[in-house]
Design brief:
This protein is an alpha/beta fold and 752 residues long. The chain is built from 24 helices and 28 strands. It has four domains: 110 residues, no CATH class; 275 residues, no CATH class; 198 residues, Nucleotide cyclase, GGDEF domain (Alpha-Beta Plaits), CATH 3.30.70.1230; 71 residues, no CATH class.
Length: 752
C-alpha cells in the first residue's frame, strides 16, 4: 500500500508542478480540440445577428458619408431603425469615449456665415444658409446619436477597464456599479476606465466592459463577467452579461453569487477562484479549402452594415428593401467594425484571427441557453489525478505485465474518452496531466517491481526460516526429500488457541489498528511456542496451531505443550495494560490433546504445508471452544494429563471436569483444566483444588447434595471460579430434575 500511494503522490505532484508549462500547453490544445468537436448551435444562436462594418462597407459609403469615422448620427439612425423593427437589444462593440469635435469650418467662419444669413434678402436663401450652417455646428452628430439612442431604449455601449491602482479615475455617476456582488481576494482590480462620453452613457440602456482574458498562449478561453474598481463590494458587468440579463428580463441588481457561481435569473454561471468564467464556444466551425487552408465560419448571421442603411432608406421611401420588415424582430444585434485597422481580432479555439465580436456573441448565447462550461477546482483535479495514479499503480503491482499493460491502456483510454465526452456535458476535465501522471505512476511501479523482485530473489535464499520453525528448517536442510508430499503416523501433542471475542474487537477498531494488534499478539504467541521447542503450524486469523514431537522427537511433548499454554497466558497478562490502552482486552482460550496423528507435507505439488491431520487433531480443536462452556482458559485431554504426569510428575495442577463428548467424536473422553504450576499455587488455591476434586468424585457418583456443598465452598474462596459455578448449577438442576438411571456424567458439546 505504501509504495503505490507514494508513487501516486509523487506522480500527481510532478504533473501539478509542470516545470516549463509543457503539460499545460498540451492540455490547452486538447481543450481547443474538444471545443471544436462539440461546437453546435443552441436554441438561441439564431437570435444573435452581427452587423459588420467591413472595408467594403467603408468604401461603399464613402461618397455619402465621407471617410471613417462617419458622423455618429448615422449610428443613431441605425439604432432607431433596429429598435423600430423589433430588436430585443442592440450592442455596440465600438468605443465612443469622447464627444466629437470634427467640423468643416472654424468658429470665426461659422459666425460670419451666420451674419450673412441674417442679412440675406431672399427668405429661401436665408433659411437654407441657416440650415447648412447649423449642420456644421460641432457636436450636432453626437446630440443626434444620443437622442436616437434614448428613443431606441435598448442600446448598450462598450467600455474598457484597464489595470491600475484603485481610485485613479472617478467614474461618472451614470456608471454607479449596478451589480451588488463582492469580489474574491484573487480578483484583480481595475483602476482606470475608457467609457462612453457622459451624455451617451446616460442615454444608453446599459454599459458593459469588453475586457477579455487571454491564456498564456494568447488564446481566449475565459472572460470576466464582472470587474471591480476600488470598491470590492459592487461590480461592473461585461457587455455580454449586461445584454443577456436585459433580454432575460433579469435586473442587474438582482444578480447574486451562490456556491455554484453567479446567478443570472434561472441560470447559474460557474465562476473560477479569480471570478473568471469559461467561454462555452458554440458559434462556429472550420472549413477546409482545396489548398488545405482553414477558414472560420460563424454560426451567427452576419449582415453588412450598409444593407441596414439601405433597408432603412428604401423603406422610408416606400420601396422594396433587401431586408424585409421584421428581420430583426426579437433579435440581439451586435455592431462591430471588421475593417483592417479597426477590427478587434482574437485567437480562439477556432481561428487565430476570430473577430472579437464573436466572443461577446458566444457569451450571450451561453447565458441565454444556460449551457456553461465548468472546470473542477484545483484540489478536485489533484484528487482525480491521484485516484487514477493509485489505480494504475495497484494494477502494476498486482497484475502480471501481459495483463497489466492492456488494463493500463484501457484505463488511460477510458479517462481520455471520459474527459472528451464530459466536455459536451459542460465539464472541462483535465486530460493531459492525469494521463502523464498515470504513465509516471505505472512506469515507476514497474521499475519498483523489478527492483523488489531482484531483492526478493536474494532474500528468499536466506529467509526460508521465517516461514518454518527452526527445527523444521534444520530437518528439511538435512533431508530435502521431506519436502515431498505425504506424512508419517506419530504420537504427538497439538495445541489450538483462540482470542475470545476477537470479531467484536475488530469491529470497534480501525483496520490498521486491528492489524497492528493482531501482529503483535501473534508475534508473542510464536515466541512462546518457540521457547518450548514446538513447531508453529499455522495462523488462522487470530487462532494459533502448534504441535510437538515432529519433525524432531520430543519424549515430553505433552508437558512442553502445557508449559507453552501457561507461557501464553502469562504473556497476555503482561501485555494486558498496553492492549487495553489500545482499546482491546485480549482473553485467550486453549485446547490441548495428545494422540496418534499423521504429520508431513500436505497439499498439492505446487503448494503444500507442513502440518498434522487426524481425529486427535480435531479433538484438540474442539477442546478450545469448550472452555467457554466451563469458564476455563486451558482445557487438556486426559491423555495429555497422563503423559505430562509421566514425564514431569507434580509439575502442573490439573482439575478434573468429568467426561465430555466433543462434537464430531463418538467416544467420550476425560478432560482436565490446566490450573497452573503447582509450586506457584497459594494455600487457598490448593484447598480449592482439593475441594473441587472431592466434589467431582461426589458428582460422578450422583451425590449431588455433597457435590453442591463443596462447589459452593470453592466459589466462596474464589468467586470467579468458572468450573465451580457451572458444575454447581448442574447439581442444582439434577437435584430438581434427577438424571436418568443410565446417566454416566458425560457432557455433550453442541457448539464448535
Amino acid at each position: 500500500m505504501r509504495l503505490p500511494l507514494g508513487l501516486a503522490l509523487l506522480a500527481a505532484a510532478a504533473v501539478g508542478l509542470d516545470p516549463g508549462g509543457h503539460l499545460e500547453s498540451f492540455e490547452q490544445r486538447t481543450l481547443d480540440a474538444r471545443a471544436r468537436h462539440h461546437a453546435a448551435p443552441t436554441s438561441d444562436t439564431g437570435r444573435i445577428v452581427i452587423l459588420d462594418i467591413s472595408e467594403e462597407t467603408i468604401e461603399r459609403l464613402a461618397p455619402l458619408y465621407g471617410r471613417w469615422p462617419w458622423p455618429r448620427s448615422l449610428h443613431g439612425e441605425v439604432a432607431e431603425y433596429l429598435a423600430a423593427d423589433g430588436a430585443a437589444a442592440i450592442g455596440f462593440d465600438l468605443l465612443f469615449a469622447e464627444a466629437a469635435t470634427r467640423r468643416e469650418v472654424d468658429a470665426a467662419d461659422w459666425e460670419a456665415l451666420a451674419a450673412l444669413a441674417q442679412s440675406a434678402d431672399l427668405a429661401e436663401v436665408r433659411g437654407e444658409l441657416a440650415r447648412r450652417i447649423e449642420a456644421l455646428q460641432p457636436g450636432l452628430g453626437d446630440r443626434e446619436f444620443v437622442a436616437s439612442v434614448a428613443r431606441a431604449g435598448n442600446v448598450f455601449q462598450a467600455a474598457v477597464f484597464a489595470p491600475g491602482p484603485p481610485g485613479m479615475q472617478d467614474l461618472p455617476a451614470v456608471l454607479a456599479p449596478p451589480v451588488p456582488v463582492a469580489a474574491r481576494a484573487e480578483a484583480s482590480l481595475r483602476g482606470q476606465a475608457l467609457l462612453p462620453f457622459a451624455d451617451l452613457a446616460q442615454a444608453s440602456r446599459g454599459i458593459g466592459h469588453i475586457n477579455a482574458l487571454p491564456d498564456v498562449d494568447g488564446t481566449y478561453r475565459r472572460f470576466a463577467p464582472l470587474l471591480w474598481q476600488a470598491d470590492r463590494q459592487a461590480a461592473y458587468p461585461s457587455l455580454g452579461l449586461a445584454i443577456a440579463a436585459h433580454v432575460k428580463g433579469v435586473p442587474l441588481a438582482s444578480l447574486r453569487r451562490t456556491a455554484e457561481g453567479l446567478a443570472v435569473g434561472d441560470a447559474v454561471l460557474p465562476l473560477a477562484s479569480d471570478d473568471s468564467a469559461w467561454i462555452r464556444y458554440q458559434g462556429g466551425t472550420l472549413q477546409r479549402a482545396a489548398d488545405g487552408s482553414e477558414t472560420f465560419r460563424s454560426f451567427y448571421r452576419h449582415i453588412p452594415y450598409e444593407q441596414v442603411l439601405a433597408a432603412k432608406d428604401l423603406r422610408a421611401a416606400g420601396q422594396e428593401s433587401p431586408l424585409p420588415a421584421g428581420t430583426f424582430r426579437d433579435r440581439i444585434v451586435l455592431v462591430s467594425a471588421q475593417a483592417a485597422g479597426l477590427s478587434d481580432l482574437r485567437a480562439t479555439p477556432f481561428s487565430p484571427v476570430t473577430p472579437g465580436i464573436e466572443l461577446h456573441a458566444n457569451i450571450i448565447d451561453s447565458l441565454l441557453a444556460g449551457g456553461f462550461l465548468r472546470a473542477p477546482a484545483a484540489w478536485t483535479a489533484f484528487l482525480l489525478t491521484l485516484g487514477l495514479c493509485l489505480a494504475v499503480a495497484f494494477t502494476a503491482q498486482k497484475l502480471r505485465f501481459r495483463l497489466g499493460v492492456p488494463l493500463f491502456l484501457a484505463m488511460t483510454g477510458g479517462h481520455a474518452g471520459a474527459a472528451w465526452t464530459a466536455y459536451g456535458a459542460g465539464w472541462a476535465l483535465p486530460l493531459v496531466p492525469p494521463l502523464a501522471a498515470m504513465a509516471i505512476a505505472y512506469g515507476g511501479m514497474l521499475l519498483a517491481r523489478a527492483a523488489l523482485a531482484e531483492r526478493d530473489k536474494r532474500w528468499l535464499r536466506t529467509a526460508f526460516g521465517h516461514y518454518l520453525a527452526p527445527s523444521v528448517l534444520e530437518e528439511v536442510l538435512r533431508a530435502p526429500d521431506k519436502l515431498r508430499l505425504g506424512g508419517e503416523r506419530r504420537r504427538m501433542t497439538v495445541l489450538f488457541s483462540d482470542v475470545a471475542g476477537f470479531t467484536t474487537i475488530s469491529e470497534k477498531l480501525p483496520p490498521e489498528e486491528v492489524s497492528a494488534l493482531l501482529n503483535g499478539y501473534l508475534d508473542r504467541m510464536t515466541a512462546c511456542v518457540a521457547q518450548s521447542g514446538g513447531t508453529l503450524d499455522k495462523f488462522v486469523g487470530d487462532a494459533v496451531m502448534a504441535e510437538w514431537n515432529a519433525p524432531l522427537a520430543q519424549h515430553d511433548h505433552a508437558a512442553r505443550a502445557c508449559e507453552t499454554a501457561l507461557l501464553m497466558l502469562e504473556e497476555v497478562s503482561r501485555q494486558d495494560t498496553a492492549w487495553r490502552s489500545a482499546g482491546a482486552a485480549l482473553e485467550i482460550r486453549i485446547g490441548i490433546n495428545t494422540g496418534e496423528m499423521v504429520v508431513g507435507n500436505m497439499g498439492s505439488h505446487q503448494v503444500f504445508d507442513y502440518t498434522v491431520i487426524g481425529n486427535e487433531v480435531n479433538t484438540a480443536a474442539r477442546l478450545e471452544p469448550l472452555n467457554k462452556a466451563f469458564g476455563t482458559r486451558i482445557l487438556v485431554a486426559g491423555t495429555t494429563r497422563a503423559e505430562t504426569e509421566q514425564h514431569r510428575p507434580g509439575r502442573f495442577a490439573f482439575r478434573p471436569l468429568g467426561r465430555v463428548s466433543p462434537k464430531g467424536r463418538a467416544e467420550p473422553l476425560d478432560i482436565f483444566e490446566l490450573a497452573g504450576r503447582r509450586d506457584q499455587l497459594d494455600d487457598a488455591a490448593r484447598a480449592s483444588l482439593a475441594d473441587f476434586e472431592a466434589a467431582m468424585t461426589h458428582y460422578m457418583a450422583r451425590r449431588f447434595d455433597a457435590a453442591l456443598s463443596l462447589f459452593r465452598a470453592v466459589q466462596a474462596r474464589q468467586p470467579d471460579d468458572g468450573p465451580a459455578a457451572v458444575l454447581a448449577a448442574l447439581c442444582e438442576d439434577y437435584l430438581a430434575h434427577p438424571p436418568p438411571a443410565d446417566w454416566n456424567g458425560v457432557f455433550v458439546q453442541t457448539e464448535k
